[in-house]
Amino acid sequence: MMGNNGQLPEILTRSPVRTVYGAGSLADLGKLAHAEGARRVLLITDPGLEAAGHPLKAQESLEAAGVNVHVFDEVEENPTTRHVRAGVAFAREVNPDWLVAVGGGSSMDCAKGINLVLTNGGEIADYWGIDKPSEPMLPFIAVPTTAGTGSEAQSFALITDEHTHQKMACGDRRLPQNGGLRPRVAILDPKLTRTQPPAVAAAAGIDAVAHAVETAATTKRNKISRSFSTEAWRLLDAAFETAMRDPDNDEARSGMLLGAHLAGAAIEHSMLGAAHACANPLTAKFGIVHGVAVGIMLPHVVRYNASSGDNPYADIEASADRLAERIETFLEAGDHPRSLAAVDVPAESLPALAELAADQWTATFNPVPVGAPELLDIYRRALE
Asked: Taking the CA of residue 253 as centre, how many other CA atoms within 13 Å lie in the half-sphere pointing to its CB?
């Protein structure tokens, strides 16, 4: 459960994903993969990361351990059915026995989408929903290079339909050892997050914060998820501002990466809420980066959910108003847009956005029931 110098919280013993944590732990990739039985790996990444050198280091580590490597580097932000289709075609040519994803949530989600179709056939849309694959997936190692999505701890892939722009959540709850979609191993190396551009680090960090906050409040939260959410919030709250101000601060970057991972694990037990339901249509219709979209919406959702006087976020903050103010402090530290008007979302688009948000799966788990009228109210609060 530990890397060269990383100490993991006890709660991670409840996760079926083997977590290797510590600065420099990417160097252990080849040894870990070979010991697990990998001999022919499909390495999935994106061209931007290749400039940072992380995929090459992963490839070198694998090859030094005697593992054959084939690189698919055509992943883009918010992977679509087109990216999955291209990855599956490439994978069928090289016939891998393991997958390795090096990158942010996009690389990891695309890897999961490729895995679903490669092993079970059909198209990725066939797996929109939960527990639809019947065949076991290939074992998978995830190496996040951003502190954000926590996809390396999750059993869902988010893939966008290239024509409708609908985000499809494709999940498989089987344990990774039983052929499920979650990675068998997650390597958390804080050194890899050093190369994040400031805007990427800020958007990814706010996404992680949103995961910790929303999982703490959903209708599905339970004792396990609350432990993950609380520890994730503690780490992210302590690290966020320092990580934005001083990207070379090793302690802050480590806290962000581990906090994002724990928040991702919390999603497995709790799901998300209205902030994500509102964010997805903003990305689909206006191309707003997911972390930016969810950051704009989150303080307004927190205040809305506590407006009746109850505080569903009590596990992480005794006052919902203080929690919303703290999130706004993070937005300021990350130089985030603070309103929908700031990202050129017109007021006349809000009713249509609210209808789309009401159809999002995550809206059904919000602690206060929401439909299109309530979501429209939240969008209007976020407009200016």
From this structure: 22
Using a cut of 0.85, tell me whether the model's pTM lies above it: yes
| Spatial separation of the C-alpha atoms in residues 229 and 12, rounded to whole Å | 12
For CA atoms 257, 262, 265, 266, the dihedral sign is negative
Range of the domain at 238: 196-383
Residue 197 CB neighbours (<10 A)? 10
150 and 216 part of one domain: no
Quote the number of domains for the chain.
2
pLDDT digits over 61-89, tens only? 999 999 999 999 999 988 999 999 999 99
Handedness of CA 34, 37, 39, 40 (dihedral sign): negative
| Same domain? 229 vs 128 | no
Look at residues 77, 79, 59 and name the one whose alpha carbon lies nearest to residue 69: 59
Cβ-based neighbours of 172, under 8 Å, separated by 6 or more: 116, 127, 130, 131, 132, 133, 137, 155, 180, 181
Helix then strand count (H, E) for the chain reads: 13, 9
| 3-class state of residue 334 by DSSP | coil
Same domain, residue pair 74 and 60: yes
Where do we find the tokens 């190396």? 189
Domain check: are 132 and 155 in the same one?
yes
